[in-house]
Amino acid sequence: MLARIKIGPRLTISFAVVVGLMLGVAVIAVVGLASLNHDLRRIVESRHPKTEHLHGMIHETNAVSVALRNAIIATTDEDTAAQVKRVNAGRQTVGEMLEKLDTAFAAEDEQGKQLQQALHTENSAYMVELIKLARALSAGKKDMAASLLLTSLQPKLENYQSALRTVSEYEEQLMKRAQTHAAASYENGRDWIAGMLLLAAGVTAVLAFEA
């Protein structure tokens, strides 16, 4: 059939087909790169920073616990006051970190928001006991502080850190999901581009053979 077409129109058809296929490759590449870029940006700008932020909060609560124990076993009022100051600074730091986390979670889905709300509940319970213990230390009531640490604060701390880890695991799951989606976008784009290039090569070869 192609042999009946003159050389000029045949070359035009060949060129148009190849150009069309190349445009298809370009479109697939652009769409694939846009999807890949979106997934990578979510990982770099959202998921990973929130996970690091949560780990930082766990670290800070552990540091506060160390300061509390140091305050209880301190032998001078100056050392006790220094450790209580560290406890209050840590409490403020954790509160500020939670506020930043609230901003980051504003665009989360319903499950993420529920986990964040549960985190707030545990944070409030923990902070109430922490303030009580810090005040007892400031008043020189170390026996009361030691009792509060073991009976009241420690269970609240464990619940709070458990809530932090739950949110962190949730973010890690979303990050892995985004990584999987990014890898799939790359593989799909690669396969489509390879197929289009092979098709273009095949069409070119057929047209050249018919010529």
User: Helix/strand/pairing class, anyone?
Assistant: mainly alpha
Total E-strand runs: 0
Shape: rod-shaped
Total helices: the number is: 4
- The portion of residues assigned to helices is over 70%
Task: Provide the gyration radius in Å.
Answer: 31 Å
Q: Name the helix and strand elements from N-terminus to C-terminus, one letter apiece.
A: HHHH
In short:
The chain is an all-alpha fold. 91% of the residues lie in helices and 0% in strands. The protein has a single domain, classed as Four Helix Bundle (Hemerythrin (Met), subunit A), CATH 1.20.120.1730.
Verbal overview:
- This protein starts with 6 loop residues before the first helix and ends with a helix.
- It has a single domain, classed as Four Helix Bundle (Hemerythrin (Met), subunit A) (Up-down Bundle).
- By secondary structure, the chain is an all-alpha fold.
- The model has no long low-confidence stretch (mean pLDDT 81).
- The protein has helices at 7-73, 77-104, 110-138, 142-210.
- It is built from 4 helices and no strands.
